[in-house]
Amino acid sequence: MRGSRGPVVLAVAFALIGGAFAGAAAASPAPPPVDTITIVSASTAPVSGGVQLSVTADSTTPIVTMNAHMLDATTSDDVLDVAMNPPAGGAMAGLSTWSVTLTPGIPPTGLPLGDYDVTVDATDQGGATLPAGPTVTTLPFVNVPSITPAPVNPVISYDNQTPTISGTVTETAPGAGSPAVPYADQQVVLAGPPAFGSLPLTTDMNGDYSYTLTAPMPGAYTVEVLPTSTLAAASAPPATFTVQYYPVAISASLSAKTITYGGKVTVSGTVSYQPGSTPVPLTGADVSIYDRAGAPHPVQTAVTDAKGHFTATLPKEAASVHWVLQAGGPYLATATVTLPMKVSLPTVISGFQATLSQFWQVSYRGCVALAVGVPGYIPALSGLTIQYSARPNGPWHTLGTVPRQKSVLCGNGGQTFGGTLAAKLNYAYYRAVYAGGTDTAGTGYLPSASGRVLAWKYEDRITSFSVSSRAVPKRGRLTVAGQLQYFSGKWRDYARQTVYVILRPQGSNTWYYIAVATTNTAGRFSATFTDPVSATWSAEYFGNSAHLATLAPAIYVRVT
User: Fold this and answer.
1) Taking Cα atoms as reference points, which of 267, 235, 28, 272 lies closest to residue 147?
2) How many CB atoms lie within 10 A of CB 522?
3) What are 54-74's pLDDT values in tens digits?
4) According to a count of CB atoms within 10 Å of the terminal CB, is the N or C end of the chain lower?
């Protein structure tokens, strides 16, 4: 609507002078008095049924008539001319206040609603006239709205996320005592913080308005009636919203803290929030489950029930994990709990082989890998041993530990291994055993064992080993003899085999062979030769693909 302007004081003086002006004051008669009309003030005030326009004038003689003219403030068209009423008891010279009551209606009996500029004209008994001139006052002759807001909780919280702003708008016609009527089926504006902007609403037939905010931002919200040519502006007292965040608590546990890969694990717990001194179950809240701290996306979600309880089945993990659970919501703090879980991966040993050489050496090889379908890889072969047993089902004994070695990939994320160890038995079962372990990240690797493998050869011996003399003169002859046998249920003579006669000179650590003998049908052998030096003598059989090597007892012979 137009802004109300203060009254304009219009002072107009008219002088009616008769006769001629005499040049010399001393000789001329006194001039007649000057007759004037001056507008001192003008105002409007509501009265029963309309608005009273009052104009106060100062005149030399009593004013006879005064007329008011209502000019459209936009177009300056003269809409209504009315004769104003003199003061009670009649007008007197000097100050007099003239008034007229303007009522809504159609000219000439009423004034249409709108904004007006008011001018007046007047005449007095002395004949002075005051023509309609500048505006003496403005008249906002419009309906006046009134907004009555309904109470609303101004604290936005988890329990008050959708407050409703509502109220009633009425309007009254110009003047005091006019009955208020509903501002029905009209537009009002809901204005909020800058980020909210404004929103048009429409009143119902009773002038009521209502709007439900969804998670509103804090700040002042108010309802306004915008001015028109026939209506004044109005604004409801603002509702200033603030936000209160409630603390949240989450408790949870795993169905198993240590599992083998592929096992089913569930997580369950409760979520509550605390609007006061007593925690309240958080209903319908999302619980986000992450497989590590700082993960951008959850791997699983759960929703709390009416008691704040939740449960979820966790996805399979091929490594130990710290599950991170988070819960919160609008106008709630975020609660976090971390649950560590160790995952152990099943392993297998495949392709295990073991062979026994004739020199009592067990050669082995194989592959340690993860079980089929298990993602990942074996990080190291520490804890891998080779075991042996005289019987198929044990008891098992450790033959040796597989040393650190350069491996190649094999199986499902596995590594090859191989090596040689000294045999304890000529007839034994062998297997590889992986003790398992835990890597630096906490992931476990379960123990595993290969299938058993039999590796054997006939055990041989040289018995009845003898020398012809324990002391031989220099360049004297020495005869060495013995018998070669192998065990197959009992000791049996081993014919047609090569036996090496060997010596280790006194003061030396090295053995040399000096003669070669062949066993007869009784497994016996002998060799005669010149004894070159004082030495320790023995005989050695190197074995073959089915027989193990053997060494005769040592006998010292001195050359004199």
Assistant:
1) 235
2) 12
3) 999 999 999 999 999 999 999
4) C
Instruction: Give the whole-angstrom CA distance, residue 74 versus residue 228.
Output: 12
- The model's pLDDT over 14-28, given as tens digits with 9 standing for 90+, comes to 332 233 333 334 445
Question: Domain check: are 161 and 221 in the same one?
Answer: yes
CB-based contact 147:236 (threshold 8 Å): yes
pLDDT tens digits for range 376-421 = 999 888 889 999 999 999 999 999 999 988 889 999 999 999 999 9
Q: How far apart are CA 358 and CA 544, in angstroms?
A: 6
Query: What's the predicted TM-score (pTM) here?
Result: 0.65
Last residue of a domain, one of 404, 433, 456: 456
Question: Is residue 6 included in any domain, yes or no?
Answer: no
- Residue-wise pLDDT tens digits, 39-48: 999 999 999 8
Final residue belonging to a domain, choices 456, 476, 495: 456
Print the domain residue range for 280. Answer: 248-344
Could you give the CA distance from residue 560 to residue 558 in angstroms, rounded to a whole number? 6
CATH code, 465: 2.60.40.10
Question: What's 366's DSSP letter?
Answer: E
The gap from C-alpha 420 to its chain's centroid, in whole angstroms, comes to 56
Q: DSSP of 105-141, one letter per residue?
A: SSTTTSB-SEEEEEEEEEEETTS-EE-S-S--EEEEE
Taking CA 93 as the corner, what is the angle to CA 92 and CA 97, rounded to the nearest 5 degrees?
60
Same domain as 403, residue 339: no
Domain-embedded: residue 3: no
CA distance 445 to 344: 5
C-alpha–C-alpha distance, residues 94 and 9, integer Å: 16
Please tell me the distance from the alpha carbon of residue 486 to that of residue 58, in angstroms, as a whole number. 157
C-beta of residue 60 within 8 angstroms of C-beta of residue 34: yes
pLDDT number for residue 518? 97
